[in-house]
Amino acid sequence: MQSTQESCCPDVVVTAGPTMEPIDDIRFVSNVSTGSFGHALAAEYATMGHRVLLLASELVDGRFDVPDGIERQTFTSAESLRQRLLSIPATRLVLQAAAVADFTPSEPVRGKLSSDAPCLDIHQVPVPKILPMLRGHFGPDTTIVGFKLLSGAPHDELMEAAAKQIDIAKTDLCIANDLQDIGDKRTVYLVRGNGSVTTIKGETTTVARRIASQVWPAKAQNV
Questions:
Q1: Please, what's the largest Cα pairwise distance for the chain?
Q2: Per-residue pLDDT tens for 211-223?
Q3: Residue 7 has what pLDDT?
């Protein structure tokens, strides 16, 4: 029989969209992620019959249609996303598709900074990397997929970045792509820990469907 923990936890966790790093109560630093890819992946796994938890940025939550039955939670900052992910007791597959900030303002201001200032200097500090935390939290039986996005980089550089992420974060796979290859159609590279690479091209939903058909949740453990 399945354990109580397995029966109440999602099969698949997908994160989607950009983090929002606060400058003050009104302003924040973010990025160009739309969250469309993460939402498409969540929809595909739900259609396949898996229990899916979608963690979506507040900036993009509700913009995309997803199948009924998907549990949805939102996040704001990288710290908010970290807390969401590490509050999940167990899952069989994590797709960390969210575009997480690399830096965050060191001292967000309470209230609103004056718009009359001649300039605004924002001191930012590195954000602790979330992806390397996931293996220790979820354990060896969870399949963990990271994402790596570069812009205008040579193909070899993108592949090296993907392999480095897998090595450092102890993930199983990396979905790598270049910003220049995202439009009406996109090209992604499914990079595995053994060094093999699968190229997938097409519209976002087509790419998500092909990834879901190849990256399955690990088998549930019976007790």
A1: 66
A2: 999 998 865 443 2
A3: 46
Residue that the structure tokens 């039986």 belong to: 141
- The closest of 155, 179, 193 to 99, measured between CA atoms, is 179
Q: Could you give the CA distance from residue 65 to residue 46 in angstroms, rounded to a whole number?
A: 12
Q: What are the backbone angles phi and psi of residue 52, rounded to the nearest 5°? A: -120, 135
Rounded to whole angstroms, the Cα distance separating 153 from 96 reads: 22
Position 4 scores a pLDDT of 35
CA 47 and chain centroid, separation: 19
140 pLDDT more than 60:
yes
**Is 104 within 8 Å of 31 (Cβ atoms)?**
no
pLDDT mean over 180-191: 95
**Is the model's pLDDT at 5 over the cut of 90?**
no
Contacts of residue 163, defined as CB under 8 A and 6 or more positions apart, other chains included, come to 174, 191, 195
Q: What is the pTM of this model?
A: 0.92
Rounded distance between C-alpha atoms, residue 17 and residue 51, angstroms: 20
* Beta-bridge partner residues of 95: 14, 145
Q: Which of 54, 50, 55, 53 is CA-nearest to residue 213?
A: 50
